[in-house]
Amino acid sequence: VVGAAALTIAIALESAMAMPQFLQELPNGSLFKQDLGHPGDDSSQLTDFAEDFDSAGQSWTKSFLCEAKFPGSSMTNGAAFGDPCCTWKKGGKPDFTVTAFTTTPGKATTCAAKGGASSTSSAAGTSSGADDATKGASDATKG
Fold this sequence. Notes:
Blueprint: H1 2-23, H2 48-55, H3 62-66, H4 77-81, E1 96-98, E2 107-111, E3 117-122, E4 133-135
Antiparallel strand pairs: 1-4, 2-3
């Protein structure tokens, strides 16, 4: 019985410790909470985005995660998380700072033709926690 209790505590502790670790793998990840990956903060279930993230090796990849569509949205994950050009590297600053959301991003960030971030644009649908994205970088200095 003691062994089972210790295992339960260890699993719960690992789940609590892992969530912030996973968020560090996303642009603007520090702005988000557990419900991005677990519906209703239920760590026994995964959201569609969390399943995609897991399939991408739990890291931000250009072709498999950044350029993929955010589940239930018309925008890419990169546009939703403030990395529309898919150039963000772990530990770096994303092109834009976005408002945290849970199921549907409110606005998409866009990539300028020359490879720099340029602006935000409205996205279809509603947001569960975000109504807009704010620029984290100046248009004039990107490129």
